[in-house]
Design goal:
This protein is α+β, with helices and mostly antiparallel strands and 457 residues long. The chain contains twelve helices and 22 strands. A hairpin with a 2-residue loop joins strand 8 and strand 9. Flavin-adenine dinucleotide binds next to helix 1, strand 3, strand 16 and helix 12.
Amino acid sequence: MRYDTIIVGAGPGGIFSAFELTRLAPHLKIAVFEAGHPLSRRRCPIDGEKIKSCLNCKSCSIMSGFGGAGAFSDGKYNITNDFGGTLYEYIGRKQAIELMQYVDRINVQYGGEGTRLYSTSGSQFKKLCIQNKLKLLDASVRHLGTDINYVVLENLFNELKDKVDFYFDTPVIDIELTEDGYTVNTSGGKFDAVNCIISVGRSGSKWMEQVCRALDIGTRSNRVDLGVRVELPAVVFSHLTDELYESKIVYRTEKFEDNVRTFCMNPCGIVVHENTNGIVTVNGHSYEDKEKQTDNTNFALLVSKHFSEPFNDSNGYGESIARLSNMLGGGVIVQRFGDLIRGRRSTVKRIEEGLVTPTLTATPGDLSLVLPKRILDGIIEMIYALDKIAPGTANDDTLLYGVEVKFYNMEVDLDKDLMTRYKGLYIIGDGSGITHSLSHASASGVYVARNIAGKAQ
Ligand SMILES: Cc1cc2nc3c(=O)[nH]c(=O)nc-3n(C[C@H](O)[C@H](O)[C@H](O)COP(=O)(O)OP(=O)(O)OC[C@H]3O[C@@H](n4cnc5c(N)ncnc54)[C@H](O)[C@@H]3O)c2cc1C
């Protein structure tokens, strides 16, 4: 079977490539290969009752399948160059924002109408943050919520299913160069294409490394972010979340001059497991539907670690720390802030007696046995700094789940078209190491599709 363009991976990057290609060049024959299931068959077996922890399914429904890692996410589309990726370094700041705004319009058109676009511009909190040695980053954020995000994905799939050949549960094994394009070897046979867009996200990171090695495409080692997920009563942060929904706040620690930042804030949300290559870490999301909301807000506090010579395995470092927490806790560990400060582990009894009811079943333990001192000290300093703008953050009963790790893919050598040294072989989204978010990954898909469609006119 021969296609004009083969897309590997049906996450936001792959979906928006397919969407824009079918819109601009409907005559092109396009296929999408996806290792995971169709959206309707994606179901994580953890129900919190019979199955409480990760079973390491062959295809993780949280990370893989139509919608990619974003399918059950909180659906926060941040429109900003300040975080979420460095796409702007390749395509320019103005174009990056325009593409993210375009993605936002499509999301609104395909089910997101009625959702709110929040913005930091003109916010009184910028001043309050600065007065307390905190910096509020600039962004607009569309919060679709896990439920509406699912509806948008369903609608996008219905839009695409008759225009694109989808191959689900069909991982791509490798990619070969041919005289006039590429042969894509999959678990379901060989397929040829003139152009190939790789958008395999975080779950495809190891595969991506293999492909780069096999095709001699240069890569650079990247960073890893480590920290905890904080869960506290929603009222503590409601003045910020009501106005901004998500606030990205950076704090520079006094002790080590490290930057600690808030990440992925979920007002009235839940804390969830995340499984990356068999390692269980923590994440969070929230629903737009009021019925599904909780009394708690959660967000991550992360510290970035960049390594220098001779060490270059930043993800390996993050994995080792996550494995340590899995070893001690059998999965994710939860600890009360008060217990952490007093140098003692949390127990089931102390958590039960606390004023914050955990939304994730995790093992009460001691995070100081897992996280390096420098990182933990930074997190504690930031909790006290946040307490000044959101009193109650440093309460004894505030829950800390660990560990939260943000793995970053190796950054692949790409030109300004996001093309490798091979004509027609593009790498986009989180798999490229350039993006780390829904909006940046989606925007990179639109960008490459426009490039291919322009050449195909
Ligand atoms: C729980 C959770 C919550 C999140 N919340 C947010 C949020 O609110 N806002 C935000 O901006 N970001 C969020 N993120 C991050 C966001 O989901 C990612 O940045 C985004 O999905 C990246 O898109 P992508 O298309 O590059 O990759 P992915 O979404 O990871 O998609 C890649 C796809 O490729 C497939 N694949 C991998 N290897 C192969 C192969 N060899 N052959 C075929 N298919 C393959 C995978 O199965 C996957 O479906 C969240 C992530 C998680 C896990």
